[in-house]
Amino acid sequence: IHALVEQHEQLVFRTSAFLTYAHEDARYVDEVNAILKALNVQTFIDKEILTVGRIDDQIIASLKQVEYQIIFCTEASNNSEYCRKEVDFSAGRSVKQIPIFIDPIEKMDWFHFHLSKQYAIIVSGIEDREAAKLAITKQLARLMQLDFGLYQPPK
Questions:
Q1: Are 100 and 49 in contact (CB under 8 A)?
Q2: Is residue 117 within 8 Å of 91, Cβ to Cβ?
Q3: What is the reported pLDDT for 40?
Q4: How far is residue 112's CA from residue 99's CA, in Å, rounded to a whole number?
Q5: Which strand (E) or helix (H) includes residue 34?
Q6: pTM of the full predicted structure?
Q7: Hey, which residues does 20 pair with through a beta bridge?
Q8: How would you classify residue 92: left for phi > 0, otherwise alpha for psi between -120 and 50, otherwise beta?
Q9: pLDDT score recorded for residue 55
Q10: pLDDT tens digits for the chain (155 residues)?
């Protein structure tokens, strides 16, 4: 992963992403968030944006600002009322939703139904956590670069 971050450090691009996840799944989220920041992506994650005021208002304001919503799809987030609200709020807006299926898709009926038309990153079959994290990061970097015309096919 460090090599991936170093490889992309010379690229200059700026985008923004809101990370939707259940707190039980923070293991992947914190690590992917750190990598995205190293790739010059402005991230919005609930524990960093929540200061004072109503949680819903701050989350909605953040979702209105971003280009991407990265959704960590697990059994816990599939059953989370807050995660569902965040996905519903972004649907139909200019936010590009990128679901990451960490748990098997068949265990996530709500996400599968609501996100089935989106390009998805699927790592549920990867047992090695480092390999899964690397796969997530590579796919996110590729998707975000394509939107900014920065993708250069290997020569």
A1: no
A2: no
A3: 79
A4: 10
A5: helix 26-38
A6: 0.78
A7: 71
A8: left
A9: 64
A10: 445 445 444 444 468 899 999 999 887 788 888 888 877 788 888 777 666 556 677 777 788 888 899 999 999 999 999 899 889 888 878 888 999 888 888 878 888 777 877 788 888 888 888 888 888 888 888 887 644 334 333 34
- Enumerate the β-bridge partners of residue 145: none
If we measure between CA atoms, which residue out of 143, 155, 127 comes closest to residue 36? 143
Q: Tell me what pLDDT residue 51 has.
A: 60
| Residues 6+ away with beta carbon under 8 Å from 110 | 78, 79, 84
DSSP string, 63-120: HHH-SEEEEEE-HHHHT-HHHHHHHHHHTTSSPEEEEEE-S-GGG-HHHHHHHTTS--
* Strands 41-44 and 121-122, bridge-based pairing: unpaired
d(CA 151, CA 144): 9
Our CA angle for 143, 145, 146, nearest 5°, is 65
Axis crossing angle, helix 129-147 with helix 2-9, rounded to the nearest 10: 20
Terminal-to-terminal C-alpha distance of the chain: 22
DSSP letter (8 states) at residue 19: E
- DSSP for residue 122: E
